[in-house]
């Protein structure tokens, strides 16, 4: 018998990707799925391609008081919807919260799995990083740890596919006809992912990051996050690449590349690509990071965190190559 | 002073395209715009690129009783929403109904402008064809008129961009992430456009069309309709092309092409492309038709109809070449 | 030590998908990769997300005379390029030809794996069906076997994503700007997939299929095939569905659905969806089929065939749920 | 008789858009079209939707020595291809070079039409700005002219649709299947548009701009450029907006908006949207600019320049509202 796993938020994009990864995981057994819109359906009604073994599982209405026997719960709920509800889940159920409510909250570990796996191992409450922070912090961590850039002078220009905005309640802003062939900035100077990035940059660098600038953009594609980060420092491209290769030497999911990364390299995988271009004459360091916002940016990193807290191999169920083209 | 024009349903895709065409029309002056969602806004708040002369026009809440002085009204309302309301519009206001409520309804002329312009000239109540019928009937009319195919043995396989499903109420079915990279049939054996096609085919052929088969598909693109129509008859490709060229000899918007038409040929225009491939040995005639579902399939044909009922040149305001790429 | 596997045509879309599936296969070990454009590179230079264990494998220039020790070869070469070359591969190397040169060629088995797995088991030369035939034949087989439709009166209207046209030599016809927001029929009355469909329909039905009509369309999406097939027969929807459920009762990859299938249901998987809508009054049966053109339509079915010829579990390496959204 | 106009590079995206605009221009008459790939065809063979009056015009092989009687020539040739050839065009033929060879070259005026129309009026050799500079310089000009930002501390993160990469020679890099669902930086620290931006910023500000940072990205959409520009200065958002509104008070094509601009606002038009968000506490000014890369970024601004050099109304032929959705 495997580890008994549940998913809350099964109808959303994060929950759906968690389902895909758990379905192929060698140690996890999905025994519980809950969701708003699709409660009362079987999994196969909602996901026509779900494996036969899971096809008949009924989707429940989410209620933290009436969970079945569970070892591990993945929560993928809208911001604001998980704080109270997850507090009512039994202590002995381990939780990975893919949503935003528990990042840098007391009693929860911030699950930046590629950077600090040892802090995560053995914990029972892990808050998954947001998709932008996942791409950003993996790219910056080696530079901050190596003091190659100034922590307080960082400009993050980030771009995400539209699934990053969530399945939402059918907001016509994200309707096909209006989003296709359209590119737009949003949430200028006040995005919800700012605090976790500022806090993590400060932890990694030991300095202040109050000057952080972050501008997200919505790109007409389904999946993918690319961050282009403008930093100040004297490092050369070579020094940045070397720092990153050394920092991630034994980490299975981060790839340091010589050429600028493309979002399609990561699609469907838990991989994270980082790359650098520097011009010491202008004290300029450009760091780039690519993830799949539903992979490393959500369900992929969640499974990685779950592997760590369950004492499994970190790569269990995550060794899927990306889908191309 | 030009012809005073109003648009009802200004926030939808059909209404927006009507706005674009009217803004560039030499004889029309937009004096009234009404819409649900955007009532109380100026036009420029809803359409940031609207010409300066129209920027300040306030969007009203739609009320047929309190219209300003108007010569002509374009209505682009959801199916079911215009029948009662338009009956309360003053007689002397001419109406082109882009929506579906008045097709083959007593007192209204079915505005198949490329096929029977003479029936439309001078009328004051015109029902615009749906986007699928627009593409289909233009392709079939020459074959039916020339008795080149059997009217009762026609299979229409049609494909539309997602704006053809309307701006909707934010139905997440048409959300970007779910619609992109997805192709789906819908409304099998019961689409709302069936009756107007059956009726028109019968009028054009003099025979029954009760065997009509029609299968629409939703294609991941914003604009464009392509119909691939399988007919039975003894004609050769050459005979079909000749019949169409002769049928449309003096018509400004229909183009008969030797190679299969592509939806992008029509984007942003009121053009209609028709093409044919036949195999007399198998008694097979394939007719193909392409339109922009918001052009010939909605606002373009509506302006063409308006030109006809107002006694203007049929091409006034409609001589825009398509947008490529 | 696993089964030693090679891929020829590694740079193309079919070869790339074969790589992805083989990388995750429990019994296959990739020891050889050959390709035109990328010969001399390591796999990771071409596929930045390839698993570490394969990263350093050098891509060879394709030469059938100098193959290493191999048990199994996947060939994914352009039409016309494999016939002669594969004839020079050593007898003892099993071959699955994803390309089109060996379909219904003497000495080769046509690998319609979901329909006739027993003909494939133990063979050593298998020709994979084309992507359109894969979707079409899976949808038609139960109807033909059950005599529910006339074999000689079938119209196939098919739609494929652009990867179905192959990676090509950079033909600008398939350039992004020209293909995006564009939908087009092509290859009317003479597509290269016609003969294998005609032959298979005749084998399954015992009757002539010389009247077959087939019209492919190119849809602006990367992956996915949908076929909408118009047939004549007296069956009801229920009878068709029942026939298909019974026909595929023990087959792992074919799913019979009540609602019309969507291409996204299959993306990234080896699944095949079939569905039916019939109107006995008009003697109309509409059969629909969905596959991923690179999954069941190419590399997925190729791996399934390879499993069959190697005596492995048919689903080995293929139990990946589809990627959504 | 109108002004006799020619287009060189008619098969490319810039040439095609010039054709569309010229076809609808009240004073221009297209009498000459030349192109590589399509020489020997009629215009309608290449552009199936071209107006009837132009349908039969033959596409010539480009030869500057054998031009017909012409008043004005639009050149849209690949970088490097126009310098020598255009030098052989007769003096009395006015030229607008949409390509990159004559920007800030002696004898040519840099045609930044919204910013310095008076320098362009009456000239006979005008070099059109690149698409990125068009979006960038329109957004920065008011800030630079008003000394609201430091000219030497500017980071431009720009994003373009794939038509911005040109129709190319069928480079499979821009193939649909590989570009769709993909987002990628390119040309880091060395893009060909850098020099004209640096020079113009220096002219507008009177200071050095040697520290300019520019990172272009390719976005999976056909048309549209968005630049997000990070500057240093003490201005508030209000001050930036006011400066821009005053700077562009009488300019017909630039729109200053309160909310971040979206690329779809400009599609198919010659409009340029600029917007600002500042945080004086951090001395941060974010300037944003949106254009259609084929409109203001190419053919639109070219026609605007042509209007200026021909003494016509600046908006002649350019008052098309954008296409939405």
From TrEMBL, chains A, B, C, D:
Pathway: Amino-acid biosynthesis; L-arginine biosynthesis; N(2)-acetyl-L-ornithine from L-glutamate: step 3/4. Belongs to the NAGSA dehydrogenase family. Type 1 subfamily. Residues 4-123 form the Semialdehyde dehydrogenase NAD-binding domain. It comes from Paracoccus marinaquae. Keywords: Amino-acid biosynthesis, Arginine biosynthesis, Cytoplasm, NADP, Oxidoreductase. The gene is argC. It is found in: Cytoplasm. InterPro entries: AGPR, AGPR_dimerisation_dom, AGPR_type-1, Semialdehyde_DH_NAD-bd. Its EC number is 1.2.1.38. The active site is at 131. Catalyzes the NADPH-dependent reduction of N-acetyl-5-glutamyl phosphate to yield N-acetyl-L-glutamate 5-semialdehyde. This is N-acetyl-gamma-glutamyl-phosphate reductase.
């Amino acid at each position: 018998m495997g580890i008994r796993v549940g998913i809350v938020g099964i109808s959303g994009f994060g929950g759906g990707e968690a389902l895909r990864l758990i379905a192929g995981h060698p140690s996890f057994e999905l025994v519980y799925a809950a969701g708003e819109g699709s409660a009362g359906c079987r999994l196969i009604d909602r996901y026509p391609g779900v494996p036969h073994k899971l096809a008949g599982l009924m989707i429940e209405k989410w209620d933290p008081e009436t969970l079945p026997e569970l070892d591990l719960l993945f929560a993928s709920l809208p911001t604001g919807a998980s704080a109270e509800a997850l507090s009512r889940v039994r202590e002995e159920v381990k939780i990975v919260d893919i949503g935003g409510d528990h990042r840098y909250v007391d009693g929860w570990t911030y699950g930046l799995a590629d950077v600090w796996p040892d802090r995560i191992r053995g914990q029972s409450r892990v808050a998954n990083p947001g998709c932008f922070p996942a791409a950003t912090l993996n790219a910056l961590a080696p530079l901050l740890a190596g003091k190659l850039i100034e922590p307080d002078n960082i400009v993050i220009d980030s771009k995400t596919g539209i699934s990053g905005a969530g399945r939402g309640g059918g907001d016509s802003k994200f309707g096909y006809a209006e989003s296709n062939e359209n590119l737009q900035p949003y949430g200028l100077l006040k995005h919800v992912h700012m605090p976790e990035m500022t806090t993590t940059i400060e932890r990694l660098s030991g300095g202040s990051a109050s000057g952080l600038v972050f501008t997200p953009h919505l790109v007409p594609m389904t999946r993918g996050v690319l961050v282009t980060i403008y930093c100040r420092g004297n490092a050369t491209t070579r020094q940045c690449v070397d720092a990153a290769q050394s920092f991630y030497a034994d980490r299975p999911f981060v790839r340091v590349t010589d050429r600028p990364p493309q979002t399609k390299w990561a699609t469907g995988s838990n991989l994270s690509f980082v790359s650098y271009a520097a011009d010491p004459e202008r004290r300029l360091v450009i760091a780039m990071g690519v993830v799949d916002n539903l992979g490393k940016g959500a369900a992929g990193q969640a499974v990685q965190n779950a592997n760590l807290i369950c004492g499994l191999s970190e790569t269990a169920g995550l060794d899927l190559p990306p889908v191309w083209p």
